[in-house]
């Protein structure tokens, strides 16, 4: 099967629409979202509607958890809290109920894939994995992670290859899985990339060929940024879309 895996939309309808259109050429069998449908952007309901309609399963992200009252976000900086509060006030009852019911992880047993938003070690703490030292913590739960564990949260594209005793960071390029290793892959962000590439990030995993692919697509950044400003959210949330940080 060919799985579409995407994450961190952050209420960016223009980026999400471009990604879903690009997936039409990829012969996708099943769609999965790794969380953070909301937060930062100007189109929370529109994005939630699209993800609900498209993804077979969506994982809970930290912004989803904050908006739906499932975590304390008082320690977030003021502009982020304001966006979360604004989205909580804007979401429809259906979309709010959907966020309240999202799982922290999903194991696709037929393909040995684990889906989560941040590190699988302490799911409810939404910890990052963007360096080998952080990936190394997953060795302690070796039997619980998948042949490939797919995450979001950092907004970066990252690949870590694990044996039972070691971790190696690989280039974030298309690759084939080796049978004697496990992999932790950060799929980047649809709606707010932070690797200085402002194109929306999305990925494909072929479970039969054991091949993982990174994809990028341009989208209408000006319109997405304008929606942030019209929603009276932090101006930097609009500006960073242009520079990809």
Describe the protein's architecture and organization:
The protein starts with a strand and ends with a helix. The protein is α/β, with parallel strands linked by helices. It is 30% helix and 22% strand. It has a single domain, classed as Metallo-dependent phosphatases (Purple Acid Phosphatase, chain A, domain 2). It has helices at residues 13-23, 44-54, 62-67, 78-90, 93-100, 132-136, 221-230, 235-243, and strands at 2-6, 30-33, 57-58, 105-108, 113-116, 148-151, 157-162, 167-170, 175-176, 182-187, 200-206, 211-217. The strands form two sheets. Strands 3-2-1-11-12-9 form a six-stranded mixed beta sheet. The longest helix is centred in the middle third of the chain and has 13 residues, at 78-90. The mean pLDDT is 97.
Structure summary:
By secondary structure, this protein is α/β, with parallel strands linked by helices.
């Amino acid at each position: 099967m060919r799985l579409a895996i995407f994450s961190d939309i952050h209420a960016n309808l223009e980026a999400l629409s471009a990604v879903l259109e690009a997936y039409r050429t990829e012969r996708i069998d099943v769609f999965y979202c790794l969380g953070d449908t909301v937060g930062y952007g100007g189109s929370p309901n529109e994005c939630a509607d699209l993800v609900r309609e498209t993804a077979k399963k969506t994982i809970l992200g930290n912004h989803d958890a904050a908006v739906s009252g499932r975590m304390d976000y008082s320690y977030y900086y003021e502009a982020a809290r304001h966006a979360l509060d604004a989205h909580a006030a804007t979401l429809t009852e259906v979309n709010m109920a959907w966020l309240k019911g999202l799982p922290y992880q999903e194991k696709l047993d037929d393909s040995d894939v684990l889906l989560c938003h941040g590190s699988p070690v302490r799911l409810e703490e939404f910890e990052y994995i963007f360096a080998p030292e952080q990936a190394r913590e997953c060795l302690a739960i070796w039997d619980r992670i998948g042949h490939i564990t797919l995450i979001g949260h950092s907004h970066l594209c990252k690949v870590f290859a694990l044996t039972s005793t070691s971790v190696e960071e690989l280039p974030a390029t298309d690759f084939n899985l080796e049978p004697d290793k496990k992999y932790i892959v950060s799929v980047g962000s649809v709606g707010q990339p932070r690797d200085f590439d402002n194109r929306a990030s999305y990925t494909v995993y072929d479970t039969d060929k054991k091949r993982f692919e990174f994809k990028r697509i341009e989208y209408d950044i000006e319109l997405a940024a304008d929606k942030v400003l019209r929603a009276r959210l932090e101006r930097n949330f609009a500006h960073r879309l242009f520079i990809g940080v």
